[in-house]
TrEMBL record:
InterPro entries linked to this entry: Ald_DH/histidinol_DH, Ald_DH_C, Ald_DH_CS_GLU, Ald_DH_N, Aldehyde_DH_dom
Organism: Halocaridina rubra
Pfam families recorded: Aldedh
Residue positions of the active site: E246
Aldehyde dehydrogenase domain ranges (all copies): 21-385
Family that this chain belongs to: Belongs to the aldehyde dehydrogenase family.
One Gene Ontology molecular-function label: oxidoreductase activity, acting on the aldehyde or oxo group of donors, NAD or NADP as acceptor
Alphabetical list of PANTHER family matching this protein: ALDEHYDE DEHYDROGENASE-RELATED
Protein name per Swiss-Prot or TrEMBL: Aldehyde dehydrogenase domain-containing protein
Keyword Oxidoreductase: yes
Gene3D superfamilies: Aldehyde Dehydrogenase, Chain A, domain 1, Aldehyde Dehydrogenase, Chain A, domain 2
Keyword Oxidoreductase: yes
Keywords: Oxidoreductase
């Protein structure tokens, strides 16, 4: 099914603007790859400022009619999209898994069902707009920029409320994970969403900047690194644009000596090794009360040895691949630096390729880089207290 969809598009994808595929001439391309195998899935366009202008223009034109629809009318469109996502859920799950490297179990059982729930939930809010939110007005054109760790789920977080409240959207997916966003746009058109209400443009970081500072974009929603978020804050300061930022984190997990240690181990495993640790809210710091620290580390290491890594479409796996070799190297550098600082590093086995083993680091000080900086990988730093 997935291969057939790629072949239907001759494995070459343009932008999706105004409910049609747009293939501008003389554009550079980017090869989207399966992180697990390194094989090329499709070729996508590296857009330019001209493409941003076209997409924003389509969204601005569509806003005139979309914003005047009743909340109930917009809700019907969101319900229709939700049903079509459910209809294509198997295809979407496979695309999300192969494009990102995360396990099919996560995309099938978590990500895609949550996308559907967001569509239904915000359709419900759209129906309440005329009664519960009298006097509230839509903003206009929303520029949405999403990362690669949850490509479609984070798309839904931004797109669903924006459309429900009468805004139109131009979305730029992450460089490495473009396919599910493009399929979602195609599904929106299939479900009857009016042309220009939702548009997808593909490109690198510079294109995201062009979208954020475009004079006809009224709000920017960004999820990604703290560094890029700071740049967007600077770029939009004083422009009057509304800005939502969801950035990095270094979340702690705290285990007291009164805890059920076996249950706590499972909680830690889910907190840090879900989605290969590529989660802004990953529990990447572990604080364990001193009387049970050694015992808890022993139990955790046993559990780590049982984690299964491999090609993402295997339904029995716990972890898939890291998004790309650059991120894999980034993670490895943090761990290598911790070793140089004298830390104890425990790792299990990992397949060859773009995989990184579950890693437990102990024996570090509170000012170590692995303690205070986001690694965005399957690396847990544990300390007693």
């Amino acid at each position: 099914m997935f291969q057939a969809w790629l072949e239907d598009h001759k494995r070459k994808f343009g932008h999706f603007i105004g409910n049609v595929w747009v293939h501008p001439e003389d554009r550079k391309t980017f090869e989207t790859k399966d992180p697990c195998k390194g094989t090329v899935l499709a070729s996508t366009i590296q857009g330019t400022t001209e493409d941003v202008n076209q997409a924003v223009g389509a969204a601005k034109t569509a806003y005139k009619s979309w914003s005047t629809l009743s909340g109930h009318a917009r809700a019907r469109h969101l319900y229709s999209i939700a049903r079509h996502v459910q209809k294509h859920s198997r295809l979407i799950s496979v695309i999300e898994s192969m494009d990102n490297g995360k396990t099919i179990r996560e995309t099938r059982d978590c990500d895609i069902p949550l996308v559907v729930r967001h569509l239904y939930y915000h359709a419900g809010w759209a129906q309440l707009m005329d009664t519960e939110m009298k006097g509230w007005k839509s903003i206009g054109v929303v520029g949405a920029i999403v990362p690669w760790n949850f490509p479609l789920m984070l798309l839904a977080w931004k797109v669903c409320p924006a459309l429900a409240m009468g805004n139109t959207v131009v979305l730029k997916p992450a460089t490495n994970t473009r396919l599910s966003a493009l399929l979602f746009a195609e599904i929106c058109a299939e479900a009857g969403l009016p042309a220009g209400v939702f548009n997808v443009i593909t490109g690198g970081g510079a294109m995201g900047s062009s979208l954020a500072v475009h004079p006809d974009v009224d709000k920017v929603g960004f999820t990604g690194s703290t560094e890029i978020g700071q740049l967007l804050r600077q770029a939009t300061a004083g422009t009057g644009k509304k800005l939502s930022l969801e950035l990095g984190g270094k979340s702690p997990v705290v285990v007291f000596d009164s805890a059920d240690l076996d249950s706590a181990v499972e909680g830690v495993v889910d907190a840090i090794w879900f989605n290969q640790g590529q989660v802004c809210s990953a529990g990447s710091r572990l604080l364990v009360q001193e009387p049970v620290f050694d015992k808890f580390m022993d139990k955790l290491k046993v559990r780590m040895r049982n984690l299964r890594l491999g090609v993402s479409l295997d339904k029995s796996l716990d972890m898939g691949a890291i998004i790309d070799p650059t991120q894999q190297k980034f993670i490895a550098e943090y761990v290598d630096n911790a070793r140089k600082e004298g830390a104890d590093v425990f790792q299990t086995d990992a397949p060859n390729g773009c995989f990184y083993p579950p890693t437990l680091i102990t024996g570090v000080g509170t000012t170590s880089k692995v303690v205070v900086e986001e690694i965005f990988g399957p690396v847990l730093v544990a300390m007693p207290f």
